[in-house]
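Our collaborator T.R. sent over the components below with a one-line note: 'Predict the complex.' Nothing else. No constraints on interfaces, no templates requested, no preferences about which chain binds where. So this is a plain run: every listed entity goes in together, and whatever single assembly comes back becomes the starting point for the next discussion.
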Amino acid sequence: MLELIVISTLNGVLFGMLLFLLSSGLTVIFSMMGVLNFAHASFYMLGAFFGYQLTKWIGFWPALIFAPLLVSLIGMAVERYGLRQTHKHGHVAELLLTFGLAFAIEQVVQMIWGKLPMDYRVPAILDFPAFTIFSTNYPAYKMFMLLISVAIFIALLVTLKRTRVGLIVQAALTHPNMVAHLGHNVGRVFMLVFGVGTALAAVAGVIAGPALVTQSDMAALLGPILFVVIVVGGLGSLPGAFVASLLIGLIQTFAVSMNGSLASLFGPLDPSIGPSLLTDIWNVTIAQIAPILPYVLLVLVLIVRPMGLMGTRES
Amino acid sequence: MTDVTSQAPSPAQSGPAQSLGFYAIWAVCILGVILLPLIFTSGGSHTTFSLIGIAIIFALSYNILLGQTGLLSFGHAVYYGLGGFLAVHGMNAIVAHELPVPLPFVPLIGGFAGLVFALVIGWVSTQRAGTVFAMISLGVGELVASSSLILRSFFGGEAGITTNRTDLPTIFGLSFGPQIQVYYLIAFWLVISAIGMYALTRTPLGRMCNAVRDNPERVQFIGYDPHVVRYLAFCFAGFFAGIAGALAAINFEIANAAYLGAVQSGVVLFAAFIGGVSYFFGPILGAIVVTMLQLELADITSVWQLYFGIIFIGIVMFAPGGIASLLMMHRPLLRAGTLPMVLPSYLIAIVPTLLFACGVILGIEVLGAYSQGSADSTTIRLFRIPFEAASPMTWLAAVVLTIGGFFVARMTWRGIAGAWDRAAMAARERGYLS
Amino acid sequence: MTTAIEMRAVEKKFGNVRIIQDLNLTVGKGERHAIIGPNGAGKSTTFNLISGHITPTSGEINLNGDPIAGLRPFEINRRGLSRSFQVTNVFAKMTVWENIRCAVLWATGHRYAFWKNVDSLPEVRRRTAEILEDIHLTERRDVPAGLLTYAEQRELEIGITIAGGANVIMLDEPTAGMSNTETERAVALIRRLTEGRTLVIVEHDMSVVFGLADRISVLVYGNIIASGTPEEIRGNPKVKEAYLGEEEH
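Returned assembly:
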């Protein structure tokens, strides 16, 4: 039991930190530009696929640098030639543009790499158990992922607190209307923010690719959870995104590792009842409902506290 | 259908000639719905018409939300899918208990299923509009889609639940075995639903939906609760989506998890938006175009969904009013008689634009064939011309066509803009444009 | 005299900032009451408090003798209070005719009806046409409101406000940004349309205020420092010091 808790906590924090790599960019982009970027998870997927391809060509470490750079170039192009063009048609059009983009990126990835999972392996240098806890070998690569995401988290924090652009971003988080007064370089700031946000997503993709599955549906699977994170945390709140990332990371990891069901708790139902909705609910395990837990959380939070856990504004 | 807009004066206020025109358009459309399968008699076209009819009802129901009330939903398929499932369960129950309910009434089961779920879910999700509503609809959509795989006894798991429409009691001697009979069943409900949804836009509630869309804050100061307006609109949208879902279930004799999934929600959003959400007839056009694309493109190319996405992005960026707005833009010019001023510029633009499009298509197909076709052959056929995907010449041709076509096309697009300005100016002078 | 609006010891805080403190205001039935005061004095906040746009932190607000503090805007509107906005706030994509008609629907009892054809409601048509005639926009009835000129939009704004037939009308700077002739026209319009009703108006243009109002209240830093007839206000030394002195050179 203790083993399960320790391992699940480690995995949960790791998944939460990965989520934060994505949700931080999404939150900042939303706060500054008012655009909920539907394609954010697609940039994460591009990161994973570029990482896989570049690892094959030039090795994992260069790929860790170049894949995010490539993705951030694409992201900046999307901002410059897509969103800026669409801005005059309003936020709904911008949201739909990213929605269409997410769809198109998935199709392109499928066209080039197919629908099957990629053979994206952990680099040999990190392919050993970092430590053994109870009877479980904890892989070094996961520690490496944790290290990278914590390092980026700290770098992000320093950037926000210490640099000019960071100050602008912070001001935009609390006073969204202020962004309009940035003056002539507002376009460049937007492009930069979009580029950095997509690069962070791509980093998450590159490092998560070998550990999770690199496949053309990974964006569609993660995208909605990302929205859950930033809505639950509170739209436009970075601390909220952080808390919600960890929360959802932990909830999902713990739920997946639990096999309990009402049947195991109270014993099986009388067999004479036969298959029905009741037996479905009775026999379903917590692990099976893990995928829907984030959405239950989302709906609950929106009902009880529509501004999210740490948000200050509603939409 | 030029009068069927949310903004133009309604027939009752306009002159008798316009009023006559309004009813004539509806009559022509209904006549078309009746006659089309008699003109195109193949089984394939009957299937296509059936699918289009279902898609139109679904897209129109979606537009009650997006176009009329300004609610962007990412989970409208929930009501479509639940309508479909309840219809299948209803049909199986009718057969099992030998109830005297003939097939043509089954869509009502779906409609009421959609309505009931919308009544329950809608009250919470329509509290707020905008991003919050969009996110709740997404969350509820994912929730229901995931639950459908857990609650197997109701949703039938991956396989879904099947039924047999011919087992139901017959009416007027119709067995509903042949596709043509199913088509006319769909057509009947299409006409009823379309008239119903159009009529809804002409009621006090329908007008207040528009008001809530434009300015929810102000609505509160003229006595209305925007939440209630949104909620009622949401319920109507759920009802008609349920009818569409039930018709789909009747057509395919199955309901499965794909009915209420994210893809289905996305497709209806595409259809409504591509057609144009600011006119009543926009989603009708969109449903026709999207269904045809789904059916036709899938035969021609394996990456048809990519073209689909590109078309959608193009519409969002360059014509956010959709096809309907592009058409309606020309109405004042037509009336003022200045339309001939722009037509030549269209003709000039069409050649380089097509070349540009060919370049993009060639590029996509070559890339697709190159990355996947290693096992078989890398030769692709485009417009009956074979291309060797591995050959640099093909790549060069794609690049030249795309880039060259783009720059030439862009010049001709500017020509269109110039011609438009002149034509609009002339129309304004003649008093047809404000 | 019976009162239309009565505010007693109303306070509004945003966070720790007190915008309105111990506000007491009485508006009699049928009175034309102007609220004046320097920028940032809390005039718009007062309007928002009365109309239910924001709820007071503490204190009492009565409309025709009934407490309305904490009610939602549409509930207050249904009790007979209607307001306009400082920034034009119309239904931009709908035509002028539709704008007014929407404002008529609730008052004529059609509410959320989805079984009636909106075009064949004679009472609604008659009242909409009347109000369009009143605000001189009959000619422009089929133009989307967003395409009207600024002055026309302001008139439409007034039209929407009075269309429901509320007996208490609140206008927030109705002549702001208008030329002299437009202002004169607007004042005549307001005078005529609010005949027999209670009017509360926020206005910066002193000629409008003193030409229109029966009573004036002066709001400074979230507090009413004086309330009285135009003559009393003109002669009030506190008002001169706080407000008129610095603006009327």
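Summary for T.R.: The longest strand of chain A covers residues 129-133.
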